[in-house]
């Protein structure tokens, strides 16, 4: 295990910091060490190399290393004790979510039962152009908006912003979202959720997302934009789900049909997504 740690740190020091990069050197070192803790190269109770050793490996000053280590302390990942050095106290990503492309609507609802959501905002707003297009309504129409942070094992992994038409949103209160998945509340109105369309791309964390997800401002996120339709093919929800990429994985199996076409083959396992 020690050899793995040593070799990994050497590789990180050779390619992990750059004086040409606009990010400060201490922050680059912080990210390298934090990633190694997340990857399990350093486990709870392990000691990090000393300041002088890290300074030599990263080719920086001891002051720069000390600042990076102090940031790890602030994040609650390590503790520093005189005479004992720097010890890992926790992994920043003890749990993650893995999604498989099973294509079952029911699994979107199951997600809400398997994780914990904290409601940040519940209000009624005017639909912006992108929300109106997704819900097939007029720009400026009133929609119900909910902002939530979803966690697993007490660790946040997604920042959710959902919009539903006012006629549906008026059927439940903010407190209902603490007890039931949003899809269940939508179906309680008599709507039958039939299908969903979603796209996945990348985005950057703004100030609020960074604070709630415990990441840096501007850190990369995966964003899933989903429109849910009822049995009459009318949109009943538009969701923007922002995921920490180190805590979310989507897996898909592809199968060849004929000579040119590849298509997803449903998994038999659970599909974990956000709502």
Strand content: 25-35%
CATH topology of the largest domain: Chorismate lyase
The counted number of beta strands is 12
The ordered string of helix (H) and strand (E) elements is: HHHHEEEHEHEEHHHEHEEEEE
What's the overall geometry?
elongated
Q: Supply Rg.
A: 22 Å
* Estimated helix fraction: 25-40%
Low-confidence stretches: 1-15, 93-110, 259-274
- What's the CATH superfamily of the largest domain, by name? Chorismate lyase-like
Average pLDDT works out at 79
Task: Give the structural class.
Answer: alpha+beta
> Given the structure, what is the number of helices?
10
The biggest sheet amounts to: 6 strands, antiparallel
CATH architecture of the largest domain: 3-Layer(aba) Sandwich
Could you walk me through the main structural features you see in this protein, from its secondary elements to its overall organization?
This protein has 275 residues and is an alpha+beta fold. 32% of the residues lie in helices and 33% in strands. It starts with a helix and ends in a 10-residue tail after the last strand. Mean pLDDT is 79; it is low at 1-15, 93-110 and 259-274. The strands form four sheets. Strands 4-5-6-9-8-7 form a six-stranded antiparallel beta sheet. It has helices spanning 2-15, 25-38, 51-58, 62-74, 105-114, 129-135, 166-169, 176-179, 182-187, 207-213; strands spanning 78-81, 85-88, 97-100, 116-126, 142-152, 155-165, 193-204, 220-230, 235-243, 248-251, 253-257, 261-265. The protein contains ten helices and twelve strands.
């Amino acid at each position: 295990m020690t050899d793995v740690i040593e070799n990994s740190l050497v590789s990180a020091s050779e390619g992990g910091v750059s004086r040409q990069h606009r990010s400060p050197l201490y922050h680059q070192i912080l990210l390298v060490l934090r990633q190694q803790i997340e990857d399990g190269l350093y486990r709870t109770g392990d000691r990090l190399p000393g300041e002088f050793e890290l300074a030599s490996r990263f080719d920086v000053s001891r002051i720069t290393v000390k600042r990076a280590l102090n940031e790890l302390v602030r994040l609650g990942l390590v503790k520093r004790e005189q005479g004992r050095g720097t010890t890992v106290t926790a992994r920043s990503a003890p749990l993650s979510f893995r999604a498989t492309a099973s294509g079952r609507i029911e699994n979107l609802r199951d997600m809400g039962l398997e994780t914990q959501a904290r409601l940040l905002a519940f209000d009624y707003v005017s639909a912006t152009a992108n929300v109106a297009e997704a819900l097939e309504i007029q720009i400026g129409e009133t929609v119900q908006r909910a902002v939530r942070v979803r966690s697993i094992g007490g660790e946040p992994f997604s920042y959710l912003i959902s919009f539903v038409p006012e006629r549906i949103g008026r059927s439940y209160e903010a407190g209902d979202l603490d007890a039931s998945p949003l899809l269940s509340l939508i179906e309680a109105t008599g709507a039958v959720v039939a299908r969903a369309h979603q796209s996945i791309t990348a985005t950057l964390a703004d100030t609020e997302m960074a604070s709630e997800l415990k990441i840096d401002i501007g850190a990369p996120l995966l964003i899933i934009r989903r429109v849910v339709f009822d049995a009459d093919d009318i949109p009943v929800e538009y969701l923007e789900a922002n995921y920490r990429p180190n805590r979310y994985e989507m897996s898909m199996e592809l199968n060849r049909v004929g000579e040119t076409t590849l298509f997803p083959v449903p998994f038999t396992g659970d599909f974990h997504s956000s709502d």
